[in-house]
Specification:
Length: about 325
């Protein structure tokens, strides 16, 4: 009798493991670009919404497991972005320290079942290709087997470098290194002019099995004309990924423009474009989601969240919560 009970329990457990989805990564699995969309392993169209951490060298206190878990549980983030600073006391000066910041966030995202972007947060990455290749080779070797991980090889190229001669050759060379160790995970490529000129990239796309292009906007600065630029890129058949955006102006300050933010969200929802908001920080600026001194390990009360934070949290709860009602009733059926 005892033995049959344990066999039943094992069968039931097997059933729960195979059919139950406990988190968003179990739900979608590996991400794959197809045309304008990012698909999950079973062919679902995937739209991820979450938050970007601030430059790692200046806001490293929030790069920890508890904060990631809090963003998943309390804010319903399905993705976070580790923005590893490169210049200005970043990776170029302290590669081990900055890599550790990134790894804390990536390890936590894997453990807690959300997606994570490893972002080479630089405006001049094409001037440091060797450092970028070394970094991404390590990341791909360590994390290439996890469906959670997305590589972002160049945060925001400035206006002056060209797509053809500067940005694309750099990205091609970094992608080649990543692909040595990781044949398939999604890679996001920055585009000229702070990741806005996505149609330039779409006209001369990167040849790789799984690439999307970064589109960044700040809703009080970039409005319909940038959405038109995005539309041009989409019409060429590429996939976009908003790895960073703000609800304020491009400096990270000024007012919160809720009307334009809503227009952007409508546009992104229409094309199922994933996004991360800038940023998890307690710096005194409009873009920050936290009030100065908010604890490093999450657990933030309403008083510790800024107006921007409240606005974002509402959107995340509204749009992500329905996606997180995992259907475990198949495992319940097994009980009969
Ligand atoms: Mg892989």
């Amino acid at each position: 009798m005892k033995r049959s009970i344990s066999i039943f329990c094992l069968l039931l457990l097997g059933h729960i493991v195979s059919f139950g989805q406990n988190n968003i990564v179990e739900k979608y699995g590996k991400l794959q670009v197809k045309g304008n969309y990012i698909l999950g392993e079973k062919g679902d169209t995937v739209q991820l919404r979450g938050l970007s951490f601030f430059w790692s060298q200046w806001m490293g206190q929030y790069y920890n497991e508890d904060a990631v878990k809090w963003l998943r549980d309390d804010w319903k983030c399905t993705i976070v972005r580790a923005a590893m600073g490169v210049e200005m006391d970043g990776y170029l000066y302290d590669p081990e320290g900055e890599k550790q910041n990134v790894e804390k966030v990536v390890d936590a995202a894997i453990k807690h079942g959300i997606y994570v972007i490893i972002d080479f947060h630089s405006h001049e990455a094409h001037k440091h290709p060797e450092e970028a290749k070394k970094f991404f080779a390590e990341m791909a070797q360590k994390y290439g087997k996890y469906p959670n991980v997305i590589y972002e090889v160049y945060n925001e190229p400035l206006q002056d470098p060209t797509w053809k001669d500067d940005i694309k050759p750099y990205e091609d060379s970094v992608i080649a290194v990543i692909r040595k160790y990781d044949a398939d995970n999604l890679i996001v490529c920055g585009t000229r002019q702070w990741s806005q000129m996505v149609s330039e990239a779409a006209n001369d796309p990167i040849k790789d099995v799984n690439v999307a292009y970064a589109l960044h906007y700040y809703a009080d600065t970039h409005k319909k004309s940038l959405r038109d630029e995005a539309q041009k890129a989409l019409d060429k058949g590429v996939a976009l990924f908003v790895t960073e955006f703000g609800t304020c102006n491009a400096s990270g300050n000024g007012r919160i423009n809720k009307v334009e933010s809503e227009k952007w969200w409508e546009f992104l929802d229409k094309y199922k474009i994933s996004w991360c908001q800038w940023s998890v920080a307690d710096k005194v600026e409009t873009a920050s989601i936290l009030q100065p001194g908010a604890p490093a390990k999450g657990g933030w009360t309403d008083e510790q969240i800024t107006e921007t934070g409240q606005f974002l949290k509402q959107e995340l709860l509204k749009k992500n919560s329905p996606l997180l009602n995992f259907k475990t009733n198949k495992s319940a059926k097994g009980k009969k």
